[in-house]
Amino acid sequence: VARIVFCEDDVAVQKLIRVALRGSPHEILLADDGMDGLALILRERPHMIFTDLAMPRLSGLELCLAVRRDPALAALPIVILTASVQRSQVETSFQHGATDLLAKPFTMAQLRDKIRQYVG
Amino acid sequence: MSGGQPSAPLPPDEHGRLAALRRYDVLDSTPDRALDDLAHLASSICGTPIALVTLIDEDRQWLKANVGLAGTQQTPRHAAFCAHTILRPQEMMVVEDATRDRRFAENPSVTGEPNIRFYAGAPLLTPDGHALGALCVIDRTPRNLTDEQYEALGMLARQAQAQLELRRISRELWHQNELLNRELEDRRRRQIEHARLAAIIECSDDAILSMSPDGTVESWNPGAERIYGYTADQMVGRRIHDLVPPERRAELEMLLRTVANGEHVTNVETVRCRSDGTRFDAAVTASPITQDDETCAISWIVRDISTAKAAEREKTEALALQQVAIEELRRANEIKNGFVGVVGHEFRTPLTVIQGFSELLATEDFSRAEIREYASDIYDESSRLTRLITDMLDLDRMESGRMRLELSPLDLNELVAEVAARSMAAAPGHRLDIDLAADAALVSGDADRLRQVMTNLLSNAVKYSPGGGTVRIRSHREGGTVHLSVADEGLGIDAGALERIFDRYARAGTPRDRTISGTGLGLAISRQIVELHGGLLRAVSEPGEGSIFHLTLLAAQEP
Questions:
Q1: CB neighbourhood size of B176 (10 A)
Q2: Number of A:B CB contacts under 8 A?
């Protein structure tokens, strides 16, 4: 059983994720923004992170940087949930330490594939 | 001195005598026919083989005319008989037998060639009493002359001197003539130069004037007449101060002092007055005119640079305008890029929810209640998309001027109260405090659009004060303007964000609670609507102190 943190400020998307992963063997933890997400990650030491980009207080990119600053979390898979698929955005994400990208709107099959890819 | 023979002492007037000799400019000159003739006459009258016209120079005796001593041009002064003759300028010197004269017995000209025995020399006497040399006759045997011969020798010496005088005078005349010609040439050149300068001054577009060190005008060229509008007659004798605006007088005094002290002033940019009182940009270049190290006058050149200045200003303004245009383009581009990004974000988030729940409903088993709930979620997200599209189209129509308002007289107080009641009913955590002035009620406007603005302002007031609090609505009338304000006790907006809140998709943070969800276009649309009404919408806020939105509209004419 793996712990997976989702940082997503949109309540409707949060609800969708919760419902979609209800039957998953993994522990799904939800954070409302980047700041809450960082606290949750440092406390729970998850096996994988999904994060939105545009969030209040701490953006997805800032969260990436903060997570990568901790040597213990250097290899933690971080998947960016982005509504933007502009090339510059993709490049910037990887420069900030993201592992992978999942573009919105994504299907539930794609979401489960990503989880399988990184935590089995 | 060599050989022991006594040389002649120097005459007492030696210095003046040599100077006189130089004046005749005769030493080392070409043979002179008249003097040669006089020497021949002396030789034949006195019956001597040798006759000379000699000139005694500082160290030598130079032979100007020579009969009987072919090949000799000069001899050392110490060996010269004539060097003795000049010691007594008024007398003739006669040596009847040189071998018996202590002065000459050892003289090489006596002991050797030309073996002088007899010598008779008459001084060549200048009008001012200097003996330049002598006319002498010489024989190789001791002898004497008759009185008539001595007298003739004296007369011939005076004739020789007369020739020298003639030569001197003619040379002096020639020299004076030279000087005169040179002076004439100089004067002619100066006149040409003067005429050329005068022509330059005459034709110059610049005002060229001269004045006394205190600024009294002495000359005034046509350029000055054109630039200032005063004629030379009007200005000569007047002080330059009259042409200088009062606030530039101190500067003028400083310039005058600087130039009077002998310094040059180049292209000082200033302002001057024309005769009609108008002002022009001018550049002043001034130089002192000196005589005996004293500044006796000042040359003063004023160039009218108003055209150049205007062009410069125009250029600066054009550059500034261009800068503004570039800034506007840059901003428009930024908005467009932001638009693309935000539209992506705003559209894709509800689409994710719609697509996700549809997929789940289609592939998994849910209870009836769950199915109903997720269908409702899908419906909400669809509505959100619809609102977003409507708002975008609205804004686009307003910004491109394609939206028409349906204007009619309406009661703003009634409209505000109605919207407030509805909005606040959905916000149980907030208190409404509404106090509207009766005289601020009547406006001319589009009721639906103004309702949209009020709904947006009130929804923002509630949304951005998540801790609850009071929402205050106030109004008053000021002349022809109605002022309405909506104040909350919420989060407030920091100065940086305050500048952008009326931009498309700007939001002070993304609120989680989407029960009154925003599209990020609300304030941009509200401002457009208010401005289409001829009004203004602006915001005042401090972080933590809440926000106040001020709305002004034109009051309708009293019925």
A1: 10
A2: 76
Query: At which residue do the structure tokens 């794609």 appear?
Result: A110
ipTM of the complex: 0.90
Interchain CB distance below 8 Å, A104 and B374: no
Please tell me which residue of chain B has the smallest CA distance to A81: B349
Q: Choose the closest CB to B512 out of A9, A15, A109.
A: A9
What pLDDT, in 10s, does the model give residues B489-548? 988 888 877 777 777 655 544 444 343 346 667 888 899 899 989 899 999 988 888 899
Say whether residue A29 is in contact with chain B using an 8 A CB cutoff: no
Decide: B57 and B73 in contact? Cβ < 8 Å.
no
A8's CB contacts (< 8 A; 6+ apart) are: A14, A17, A30, A31, A32, A50, A51, A52, A55, A81
Give the model's pLDDT for residue A114: 93
- What is d(CA B222, CA B199) in angstroms, rounded to the nearest whole number? 11
Distance from CA of B357 to the nearest CA of A (A): 7
Which run of H or E residues covers position A100?
A: strand A100-103
Question: What residues of chain B lie within 8 A of the CB of A57, using their CB?
Answer: 509
Spell out the residues 6+ positions from residue B174 whose beta carbon is closer than 8 angstroms to its own: none
Give the pLDDT confidence score for residue B73 in this predicted structure: 93
Is B341 within 8 Å of chain A by CB?
Answer: yes
The DSSP string of B398-442 is HHTT------EEEEHHHHHHHHHHHHHHT-TTEEEEEE--GGG-E
Query: Which parts of B141-214 are beta strand (E)?
Result: 207-211
Q: Looking at this protein, which amino acid is placed at residue B47?
A: G
Q: Are B413 and B438 in contact (CB under 8 A)?
A: yes
Backbone angles phi, psi at B43, to 5 degrees: -60, -45
Phi, psi of B35 (to 5 degrees): -70, -35
Q: Of A7, A9, A16, A84, which to mutate for an interface test with B (greatest number of B Cβ within 10 Å)?
A: A16
First CA to last CA across chain B, in angstroms? 143
Assess A27–B contact: CB distance below 8 Å, yes or no: no
Q: Is B521 left (phi over 0), alpha (psi -120 to 50) or beta?
A: alpha
SS3 content of chain B, % helix, strand, coil (to 5): 50, 25, 30
Show residues of chain B in contact with A56, CB under 8 Å: 509-511
Work out the number of other CB atoms within 10 angstroms of the CB of residue B140.
15
Residue A20 to residue B360, Cβ atoms within 8 A? yes
Neighbour tally for B7: CB within 10 Å = 16
Q: Which of A13, A56, A107 sits opposite B349 (nearest CB)?
A: A13
Q: Which of B123, B124, B157 is nearest to B45 (CA)?
A: B157
Tokens 């915001």 locate to B539
Instruction: Indicate yes or no: CB of A107 within 8 angstroms of CB of B356.
Output: yes
d(CA B286, CA B260): 10
Residues 473-532 of B with CB under 8 A from A: 509-514
Residue B331 has pLDDT above 90, yes or no: no
Q: What is the pTM of this model?
A: 0.45
User: In 3D, which of B63, B66, B62 has the Cα closest to residue B43?
Assistant: B66
Q: What is the DSSP string of B72-98?
A: --EEEGGG-SHHHHTTSTTS-EEES-G
